[in-house]
Design a protein that fits this description.
The chain is mostly helical. It is built from 21 helices and 2 strands. Helix 2 crosses helix 3 and helix 14 crosses helix 15. The longest helix has 31 residues, at 373-403.
């Protein structure tokens, strides 16, 4: 199949993806939920007054919402939509649907750049076009659905920097922009960039090209400065979300103290009780539990998120179509079998699978879709890679039989 045919199929998939995400958008889901109303209200207020609905402004960047704080990216984007389309459900949901739909061509570009093959790229784009997790997320006003499009774009740009360092500049700019929409890129992408730079160290840190080494170093210094700046700029947003993490949640402190008291009632000394049960050990256990919950097949294929806004649990759907379960298991088995001799692209895929659950691991109510959109993309790429591997093996067997 030539390039034009792949591009035509991709164009058709993208058109279909947009249609599936915008058709009857104002009616399905039936009504705007609390987060959608909060973003829509602030967006309308910004459009009308340049202040948020609390009167803070002009042009604020920390938005106090209903029970928490929100980042400004999607609010200002929604304000632009309301300006042209009016204050209605369609205008409020449309920016998320369109920005989320961009994941289809961006995932194609990412996988094609990674494996230098069009078939796994097209398969991945096909999986995301009809993916339950992505369809559900993109039909809500939902920052994580937008953020995962940014992730795919950043990874594609960073992989292109293997050959030409100037791609690091747009990577850094997109990273900074993405952090105005959601904080998952802030937690995940620096680690993933570092992993890719280590895997492709000969391209990012070449011995005979000191200029490229300095350019790579400058990029990571710029990333560090961006992370620090963003944490400072959005300090109110971050402070408002700390209670949902395992590091500052009062429930963990209460459980720790209760376990210490139980041990002392059993005759254990106070020092030993503290050594066995303390906030660090409880936090570590919650972290491990949250991390492993990302790989829970019940979550991925049967139950989905416990929040009805972000899943189809009530309809009996998980995040992925159940028909993909055996393919995923076979893909994981093939990846494990190849561990001693993984190619560099496969090492990048494995790194993405292992790093992307970190945001979920620090969340109290794990597994939660908000923190797992990047992981879902990694799983979709893994399934696409697995199908491509099986098709390649089948083609080789036919070729061998033909020779015989």
């Amino acid at each position: 199949m030539n390039n034009k045919k792949y591009q035509l199929i991709l164009g058709c998939l993208f058109g279909l993806a947009v249609f599936l995400r915008v058709y009857q958008l104002a009616k399905v889901p039936y009504a705007l939920h609390r987060d959608e109303l909060a973003i829509g209200y602030d967006a309308y207020s910004i459009f009308k007054t340049s202040h948020d609905h609390h009167g803070v402004g002009p042009w604020p960047i920390n938005f106090q919402s209903i029970g928490d704080y929100k980042l400004p990216g999607l609010i200002y984007t929604t304000a632009l939509s309301i300006k042209f389309l009016g204050l209605n459900s369609w205008a409020i949901r449309l920016p998320t649907a369109l920005l989320a739909s961009l994941l289809i061509p961006l995932s194609y570009l990412l996988v094609k750049e990674l494996f230098n093959k069009q078939k796994p790229a097209l398969i991945t784009a096909l999986l995301i076009t009809f993916g339950i997790w992505h369809l559900t997320a993109s039909r809500n006003v939902y920052e994580p659905a937008v953020a995962v499009s940014f992730s795919a774009l950043m990874l594609w740009l960073f992989l292109k920097a293997r050959q030409h360092s100037w791609w690091l500049v747009p990577t850094w700019l997109v990273f900074t922009l993405a952090c105005f929409f959601y904080n998952a890129p802030l937690l995940l992408l620096p680690w993933l960039f570092l992993a890719i730079a280590v895997i492709y160290h000969a391209q990012f840190w070449p011995k005979k090209n000191s200029l490229k080494r300095w350019q790579s170093l400058a990029f990571f210094i710029g990333m560090f400065l961006s992370v620090v700046s963003i944490l400072v700029i959005f300090s109110q947003v971050n402070a408002g979300k700390t209670g949902a993490t395992i590091f500052f949640n009062p429930e963990i402190i209460i459980q720790t103290q209760a376990q210490q008291l139980n041990l002392m009632l059993w005759g254990v000394t106070a020092k030993l009780a503290y050594l066995i049960n303390n906030q660090f050990t409880f936090t570590a256990l919650y972290f491990i539990k949250g991390y492993l919950s990302s790989f829970d097949l019940n979550y991925l294929f049967f139950l989905g998120d416990h929040n009805p806004w972000h899943s189809l649990r009530e309809l009996g759907f998980g995040q992925f179509n159940l028909a993909l379960l055996p393919i995923l298991l076979l893909s994981i088995g093939l990846l494990i079998k190849k561990l001693p001799q993984l190619t560099k692209p496969e090492k990048v895929l494995l790194s993405y699978l292992l790093i992307s659950p970190l945001a979920n691991a620090i969340t109290i109510d794990a597994p939660i879709t908000n923190r797992l959109m990047d992981f879902h993309l990694a799983v979709a790429i893994l399934i696409g890679w697995g199908i491509w591997q099986f098709l390649t093996i089948k083609t080789r067997l036919r070729y061998d039989k033909a020779i015989i």
